């Protein structure tokens, strides 16, 4: 038989469709995708799409499989690997396995797969299109609303960043001012301290001189047992504790070596003897005193150790006049009271209490204190701000998405309640599994990385290296994001032992392109 002309073939094909199908109008070669129609030319032999062989055009859709790839039987079930194209006018064209063709089940919404059977297929394409349209619109609306929130998050993140930068600058200025204040405070403080230190040292020196003076007098009076205002060899010899060579007798010669002479007056005692003996010297036990009552004590004998010694400042002549003893006492007491500041401070020195500041020192210290307090307050503030800066740096070190759209997650935790456990994810930190019936919580992962596919890295995040599973791997969690109006964990599963999967809805995952799609676009699903 001769090949029919292209026009004839087309008419013939349409006729066949109308006669054999009965269900749905077929506008193209049965079962062929629109994009491949050009490969099927009725006036030309057909070359299998895998180019394995060329056959006469009549062999196409003749219910006998010729091509290995099944491309010669797009409209029949003859080839096990063939694919039938449902045109599904008004909806979305789909490919189905060709063995679905004529199996008595309506697979295409236009019913074109059952053209050769008696099964009546309702055309559900319009209904499907409407449903699909509604779903697409709902999805678009969700993404639109989500994107609006996402934009707020991004704007907030930008505002926070610039606010922190601004604050950082302010703080740097404040630190400079505070340091200047500190320097200003330090000068008067140092001046005050130096002045006080000098005063303190002077007074200490005066006091030490007085104490030494008194000790010398007391020791001299103690040694001068005959009251002749001289310490002689025999008087010092009684103090055998001063004999360094203690095994032998404390000889006259040894005593004379200490005194430097046969006897010394108070001044010589002060300059040459006192320092030699003061460390070893011990007072002799006092002689027994008569009972004080009822007879008053006789006047102490001349030169008694109980009598105060003359002041060192008095001349030798005066010292040699025992009759002046009372005047000397008086002078001594006068001398003592003439330096009240020193005596006053004596108490402080013993107490280790600093002496009272003078008015000028007090004023300087007050200024310094004030400046220091201000500085300390500012320094406290600075520490706080430095902490804030550190937090900020830590936060800006976190990858919150190309536009900071995941910045709202910083320092936030979210729970998902499941029958047995509460799952808690603390974003960019860790994830826990908390048993509801008591028992200790288990860390199922620590923040690891964004783990979505290369083209959509921010689709997922990974929490890894959690508590090790018994006889298994360390626990881990993958969080998959999808568009939602609120930040919310909506599902947690354990698809594989100790590997957890969470679905999390967030505006941050909403897509501007989905939000901007027109609701009428269609596409072919394969
Ligand atoms: C606990 C939970 C489970 C986990 C088992 C593994 O019961 O952490 O999620 O599968 O341990 O032993």
UniProtKB/TrEMBL annotation:
Record region (Disordered): 280-358
Compositional bias per record (Basic and acidic residues), positions renumbered to this chain: 318-333, 343-353
Record carries keyword Translocase: no
CDD domains assigned to the protein according to its UniProt record, in alphabetical order: LDLa
Pfam families: PRKCSH-like (PF12999), PRKCSH_1 (PF13015)
Domain spans labelled EF-hand: 211-246
Coiled-coil residue spans: 131-188
MRH domain location: 411-512
An individual GO BP term: N-glycan processing
Claim: Endoplasmic reticulum is one of the keywords in the record: yes
Chain intervals with Pro residues compositional bias: 287-299
Keywords, ordered alphabetically: Coiled coil, Disulfide bond, Endoplasmic reticulum, Signal
Molecular function per GO: calcium ion binding
Designated name of the protein: Glucosidase 2 subunit beta
Organism in which the protein naturally occurs: Adineta ricciae
Lineage: Eukaryota, Metazoa, Spiralia, Gnathifera, Rotifera
């Amino acid at each position: 038989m001769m090949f029919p002309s292209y026009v004839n073939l087309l008419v013939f094909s349409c006729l066949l469709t109308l006669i054999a199908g009965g269900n749905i109008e077929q506008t193209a070669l049965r079962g062929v995708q629109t994009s491949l129609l050009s490969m099927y030319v009725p006036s030309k032999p057909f070359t299998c799409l895998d180019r394995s062989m060329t056959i006469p055009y009549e062999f196409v859709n003749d219910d006998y499989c010729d091509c290995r790839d099944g491309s010669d039987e797009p409209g029949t079930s003859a080839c096990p690997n063939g694919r039938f194209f449902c045109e599904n006018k008004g909806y979305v064209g789909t490919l189905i396995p060709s063995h679905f063709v004529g199996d008595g089940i309506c697979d295409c919404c236009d019913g074109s797969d059952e053209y050769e059977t008696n099964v009546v297929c309702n055309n559900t394409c319009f209904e499907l299109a409407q449903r699909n349209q509604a779903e697409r619109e709902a999805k678009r609306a969700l993404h639109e609303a989500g994107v609006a929130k996402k934009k707020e998050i991004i704007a907030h993140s930008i505002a926070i960043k610039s606010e922190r930068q601004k604050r950082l600058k302010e703080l740097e200025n404040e630190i400079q001012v505070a340091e200047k204040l500190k320097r200003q405070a330090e000068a008067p403080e140092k001046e005050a301290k130096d002045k006080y230190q000098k005063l303190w040292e002077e007074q200490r020196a005066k006091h030490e001189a007085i104490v030494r003076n008194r000790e010398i007098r007391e020791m001299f009076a103690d040694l001068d047992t005959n009251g002749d205002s001289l310490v002689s060899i025999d008087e010092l010899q009684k103090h055998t504790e001063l004999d360094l060579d203690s095994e032998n007798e404390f000889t006259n010669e040894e005593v004379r070596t200490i005194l430097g002479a046969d006897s010394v007056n108070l001044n010589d005692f002060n300059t040459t003897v006192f320092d030699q003996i003061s460390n070893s010297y011990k007072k002799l036990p006092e002689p027994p005193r008569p009972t004080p009552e009822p007879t008053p004590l006789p006047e102490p004998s001349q030169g008694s150790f109980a009598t105060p010694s003359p002041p060192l400042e008095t001349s030798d002549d005066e010292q040699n006049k025992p009759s002046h003893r009372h005047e000397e006492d008086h002078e001594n007491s006068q001398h003592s009271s003439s330096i009240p500041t020193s005596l006053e401070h004596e108490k402080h020195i013993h107490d280790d209490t600093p002496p009272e500041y003078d008015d000028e020192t007090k004023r300087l210290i007050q200024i310094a204190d004030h400046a220091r307090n201000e500085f300390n307050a500012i320094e406290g503030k600075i520490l706080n701000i430095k902490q804030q800066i550190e937090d900020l740096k830590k936060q800006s070190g976190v990858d919150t998405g190309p536009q900071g759209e995941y910045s709202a997650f910083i320092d936030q935790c979210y729970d998902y309640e499941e029958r047995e456990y509460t799952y808690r994810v603390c974003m960019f930190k860790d994830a826990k599994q908390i048993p509801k019936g008591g028992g200790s919580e288990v860390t199922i992962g620590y923040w690891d990385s964004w783990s979505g596919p290369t083209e959509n890295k921010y689709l997922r995040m990974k929490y890894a290296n959690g508590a090790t599973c018994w006889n298994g791997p360390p626990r881990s969690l993958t969080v998959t994001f999808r568009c939602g109006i609120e930040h919310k964990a909506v599902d947690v599963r354990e698809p594989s032992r100790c590997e957890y999967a969470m679905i999390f809805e967030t505006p941050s995952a909403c897509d501007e392109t989905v939000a901007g799609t027109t609701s009428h676009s269609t596409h072919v699903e394969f």
